[in-house]
């Protein structure tokens, strides 16, 4: 199921509650940016991902994202 939510960095990311998804989001260095990563979906329309991955990829939060599960 496709997820549209707000990527945040203020929540604690729990990899045990995360799932692998393909996410697309805005990135200052690219017209289109998508990455396969673990995200945690929260019940309030917010999602989080590993802060280290966000930093490594230069992802700025908060921002809206679209995520598609990988099977």
Which features does this protein show?
mainly beta; 5-stranded mixed beta barrel; 1 helix
What does this structure look like?
By secondary structure, the protein is mainly beta. The chain has one helix and five strands, in the order E-E-E-E-H-E. A five-stranded mixed barrel has the order 1-4-3-2-5. A hairpin with a 2-residue loop joins strand 2 (19-27) and strand 3. The termini are close together.
The percent of residues in helical segments reads under 10%
Question: How large is the share of residues in beta strands?
Answer: over 45%
How many DSSP-defined strands?
Answer: 5
Shape: globular
Largest sheet, strands/sense/barrel = 5 strands, mixed, barrel
Structural class: mainly beta
Distance separating the two termini: 11 Å
- Biggest sheet: strand arrangement: 1-4-3-2-5
Order of helices and strands: EEEEHE
Q: Work out the helix count.
A: 1
Task: From the alpha carbons, calculate the radius of gyration and give it in angstroms.
Answer: 11 Å
pLDDT averaged over residues? 90
Low-pLDDT parts are none
Secondary structure blueprint with pairings:
Blueprint: E1 3-8, E2 19-27, E3 30-41, E4 46-49, H1 51-57, E5 63-69
Parallel strand pairs: 1-4
Antiparallel strand pairs: 1-5, 2-3, 2-5, 3-4
Task: Describe, in short, the structure shown.
The protein is mostly beta strands and 71 residues long.
